[in-house]
User: Which sequence fits this backbone?
């Protein structure tokens, strides 16, 4: 599950996305250089390979550790794309392109938002979409929608199988979530039950007004941290904390977790910020640049590894969640103060990641010393015990 939204101003466009995936599905930032390719070359995507094009552009993407494709990203020309799972009535196909593959292919092959939309639609019609969309749940599949932007505007693309519909963003704010939103396309195609379980409409009612009111990237960061008007998540036995953009796992039917977040300001020269960690409420948005890679350690997997940026942050995230309303305020102001300084005068990406890691270690030591009981509902505690055991992080959390 995910949320993507844009704010369209007279000066340009701003973009934001939370990527909601399985709780142990780490995400990695990947820098890919521009490249020329030979006739007959092919690109190996997640499940299939397809013909390569003569030239691919430099991109920075945030991708699940096991996929070729990406949940969100940007290219050297100021194009940004995010995708959403959408649930439709059509039959599920076999292995084909994933929506995440289409995100990365659109970024690598287009110089404008309209060009990226054309790439996505052409590849969708030629190769189709399908195949497992989860490493831990191989039976989980879905269709996709996309929010595509560049400095001049934004477009929504919604799909069902090989069919698609496109809508230009004409208002100040537009959001998409885990449901079809173009009425003429949704009619007869939307799976309303799965869309309801995904709480898509509830989250769009929160994100679209926030997108309309945003004045800068800091507003979008706070929108991605929104828990629905409360400091801490509201828990549902059906879908955990899926009722707001900052998603926290713990539901019986659906248990998604925000595993990475992204904000782009495409006004007056693109600037991008990424958490490269889960739960934006416990994370710092670090400035990142398309052509400036940062060493974030080994590529993480679905098993705890303290040498990776994503998993080191999980110690802070999962320790905070046992008493979110009490523990997050212990470092909330320091998090906000640090980001405000970075927004006003961005450091290098390497310096920002280094400072973030140092701060999070301080915050973890303070949170761990509180020794508070887990105040979450019983079904949430059970869910997270299983998640922690699967990741082999449980002993680290209870040291």
Assistant:
């Amino acid at each position: 599950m995910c949320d993507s939204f844009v704010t369209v101003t007279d000066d340009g466009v701003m973009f934001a996305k939370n990527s909601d995936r399985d709780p142990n599905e780490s995400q990695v930032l990947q820098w890919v250089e521009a490249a020329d390719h030979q006739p007959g070359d092919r690109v190996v995507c997640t499940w299939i390979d397809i013909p390569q094009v003569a030239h691919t552009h430099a991109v920075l993407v945030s991708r699940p550790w096991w996929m070729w494709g990406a949940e969100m990203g940007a290219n050297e020309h100021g194009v940004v794309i995010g995708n959403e799972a959408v649930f439709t009535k059509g039959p599920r196909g076999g292995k084909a392109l994933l929506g995440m593959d289409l995100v990365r292919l659109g970024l690598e092959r287009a110089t404008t938002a309209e060009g990226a939309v054309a790439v996505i639609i052409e590849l969708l019609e030629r190769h189709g979409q399908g195949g497992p969309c989860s490493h831990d749940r191989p039976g989980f599949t879905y269709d996709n929608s996309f929010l595509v932007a560049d400095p001049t505007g934004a477009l929504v693309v919604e799909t069902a199988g090989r069919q698609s519909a496109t809508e230009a963003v004409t208002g100040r704010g537009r959001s998409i979530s885990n449901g079809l939103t173009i009425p003429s396309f949704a009619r007869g195609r939307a799976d309303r039950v799965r869309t309801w379980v995904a709480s898509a409409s509830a989250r769009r009612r929160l994100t679209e007004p926030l997108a309309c009111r945003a004045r800068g990237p800091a507003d979008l960061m706070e929108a991605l941290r929104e828990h629905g008007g409360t400091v801490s998540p509201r828990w549902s036995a059906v879908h955990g904390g899926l009722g707001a953009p900052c998603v926290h796992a713990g539901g019986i039917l659906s248990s998604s977790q925000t595993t990475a977040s992204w904000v782009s300001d495409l006004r007056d020269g693109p600037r991008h910020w990424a958490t490269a960690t889960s739960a934006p409420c416990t994370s710092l948005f670090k400035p990142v640049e398309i052509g400036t890679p940062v060493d974030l350690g080994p590529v993480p997997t679905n098993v705890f590894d303290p040498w990776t940026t994503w998993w080191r942050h999980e110690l802070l995230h999962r320790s905070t969640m046992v008493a979110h309303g009490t523990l997050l305020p212990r470092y909330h102001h320091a998090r906000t103060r640090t980001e405000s300084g970075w927004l006003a005068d961005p450091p290098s990406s390497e310096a920002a990641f280094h400072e973030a890691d140092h701060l999070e270690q301080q915050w973890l030591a303070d949170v761990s010393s509180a020794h508070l009981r887990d105040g979450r509902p019983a079904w949430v505690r059970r869910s997270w015990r299983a998640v922690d055991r699967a990741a082999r992080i449980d002993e680290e959390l209870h040291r």
In short: Residues 20 and 258 are 4 Å apart (CA to CA). The chain has one domain: 2-291. The chain has twelve helices and 17 strands.
